[in-house]
């Protein structure tokens, strides 16, 4: 590109920058936010529904693993961004005055047309979806569930769910840790060294079903350790959680 061509390109860019934008562009912001939020919720809900179908019907507590939940709920954000922008632009162009004003703006500034912008966003969204959706599926596939007669665990890359009897519980490790937030742990270690943290995602839900966990463990031989339940996180733990994490579930 010659120096003259570069000068002309810079002048055109400056002219486009000075071009007064239509106030209708501001309305695209809430439309795009609405579209991003709707797409994000929709994708996450789809994979959460898939995960719920994997839970056994007789389970009384079930959840995804922490990494699984991160993948299932965070990965949908990336394809949701271009989807939301497509929806936002489409909703804006459904308003006749907005469409007329934006068409005049496109002609005056030689900006990409509505159609070409939507196509470019769709292609970008397809690339992001090709990466994010398999991650969502892996996240939804990573789960555990407990029922009166057994514990179920499904690793992220597994095609089937592993089933364990409560007699397969080798030991229980109760504890807590503090950082940006306090985390409480009730880790069930199985005979093959598989670990399931029953308090990982919802300590309140676990506390509610704890009597059923005690009933399932009654008469079983297992080790128990609460040596990690120390420090400030233990001191500030709710009374109910201190009772659970300080004592062996069954005598």
How would you describe this structure to a colleague?
The chain is α+β, with helices and mostly antiparallel strands. It folds into two domains: 3-141, no CATH class; 161-246, no CATH class. 57% of the residues lie in helices and 18% in strands. Strands 1-2-3-4 form a four-stranded antiparallel β-sheet. Strands 7-6-5-8 form a four-stranded mixed β-sheet. Strand 5 and strand 6 form a beta hairpin. Helix 3 (66-74) runs antiparallel to helix 6 (114-141) and helix 4 packs antiparallel against helix 6. It is elongated. The model has no long low-confidence stretch (mean pLDDT 87).
What count of domains describes the coordinates? 2
Count of separate DSSP helical elements? 9
Total DSSP E strands: 8
Strand order, main sheet: write it out: 1-2-3-4
- Please state roughly what percent of the residues sit in beta strands, choosing from under 5%, 5-15%, 15-25%, 25-35%, 35-45% or over 45%: 15-25%
The secondary structure category is: alpha+beta
Which word captures the global form? elongated
Overall average pLDDT: 87
Oligomeric state as shown: single chain
The low-pLDDT segments are none
């Amino acid at each position: 590109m010659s120096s003259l061509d570069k000068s002309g390109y810079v002048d055109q860019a400056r002219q486009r920058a000075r071009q007064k934008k239509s106030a209708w562009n501001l309305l695209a912001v809430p439309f795009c936010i609405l579209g991003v939020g709707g797409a994000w919720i929709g994708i996450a809900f789809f994979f959460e529904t898939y995960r719920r179908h994997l839970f056994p019907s007789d389970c009384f507590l079930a959840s995804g693993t922490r990494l699984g939940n991160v993948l299932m709920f965070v990965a949908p954000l990336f394809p949701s961004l271009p989807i939301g922008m497509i929806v936002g632009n489409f909703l804006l162009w459904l308003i006749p005055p907005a469409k007329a004003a934006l068409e005049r703006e496109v002609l005056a500034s030689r900006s990409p047309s509505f159609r070409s912008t939507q196509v470019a966003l769709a292609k970008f969204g397809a690339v992001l979806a090709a990466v994010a959706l398999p991650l969502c599926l892996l996240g939804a596939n990573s789960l555990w569930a407990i029922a009166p007669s057994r514990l179920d665990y499904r690793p992220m890359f597994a095609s089937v769910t592993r089933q364990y009897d409560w007699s397969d519980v080798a030991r229980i490790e109760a504890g807590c840790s503090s950082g940006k937030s306090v985390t409480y742990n009730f880790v069930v270690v199985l005979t093959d060294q598989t670990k399931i943290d029953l308090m990982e995602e919802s300590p309140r839900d676990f506390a509610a079903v704890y009597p059923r966990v005690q009933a399932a463990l009654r008469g079983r031989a297992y080790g128990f350790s609460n040596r990690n339940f120390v420090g400030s996180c233990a001191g500030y733990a709710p009374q109910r959680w201190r009772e659970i994490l300080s004592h062996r579930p069954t005598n």
